[in-house]
Amino acid sequence: MNLIEIERVVSRLQANLFKKANSYTVGLFKSKFRGSGIQFREHQIYNPGDDVRFIDWKLSAKSVGKTYVKTFEEERNVEIVTIVDFSPTMFTGYKGVSKLQMALELVCMIYLIAEETKDYQKVVLFTDEVIQLPKNSGKKGIVNLVSFLEKKGYLSNDGKILVRDSNFVRLESEQKIKMIKSNLAKKKETIFLTDFYDEEITETIEGFCGHKNFNCFNLVSPLDNEKSLPFSFKTRNLKESALTFFRNSEVEKEDHQKIKKLNIKSKYLERFIKEMV
Question: For labelling alongside 258, which of 2, 6, 111, 147 has CA 20 to 30 A away?
């Protein structure tokens, strides 16, 4: 995909994304990631007109003839880390829209919002390896993401998700958990988009939901909620549509209350924003 084609794809994304998420909820989301509010900057000598609420009485008591006030500044440049789980079942969906496309649309929307709030988004991809894209924002971030996915064979030259062979080496659960833990330890605002194809991590991920800076979204399609059929499946070769069911209808998925759900049939962009705020 050349730059002109990428720009065309980005323009279409930018035009369509905010049709699905209205300006009110987008505005709420923009206020979500503003750091922890204000942080202390320095002490200054009190001048008439300064807010007396910020007088540091302890420091002033130690300084003969001088009164000091605390000054603050707003925390900016928040780094949002969005992790996308590229499982084989993420290529399935509803009426031509896959769960992977849903996840990538969310990533693109966050890029656009981050530009308005002067923040950044770092994207991590769980494929057969852990791929970390440099932090970015706005159209530039989307261009870099689209270009990378096209080179890796996940997107066509018109920006559509390509169904590809899923016979890659499965990323170990421990690697996924380690990456998420690392970002939480650094107090990064972390978003995890997955359909829990890797069920081994579900309990651990639910435990992470106790962190105020961690948000996990379970992306679901109609098949995932179907009661009369196996609720999920894996594939041997997605290009040939060779589907193999691995769980039957007698076994139901647990409803993990701390993990948020996004249904591909709903207005998922707007729903995502409401869940975040």
Answer: 111
Do 58 and 116 have their domain in common? no
Q: What is the dihedral of CA 173, 277, 118, 85, to 10 degrees?
A: 20
State how far the Cα of 100 lies from the Cα of 123, in Å rounded to an integer.
14
Q: How far apart are CA 173 and CA 196, in angstroms?
A: 11
Residue 131's domain spans which residues?
A: 3-30+76-276
Kind plus residue range of the DSSP H or E element containing 227: none
> For residue 266, what are its two tokens?
């709903």
Residue tagged 């084609």 (tokens) = 5
Angle at 193 between CA 187 and CA 194, to 5 degrees: 125
> How many angstroms separate the Cα of 275 from the Cα of each of 39, 89, 180?
27, 23, 20
Q: Are residues 134 and 195 in the same domain?
A: yes
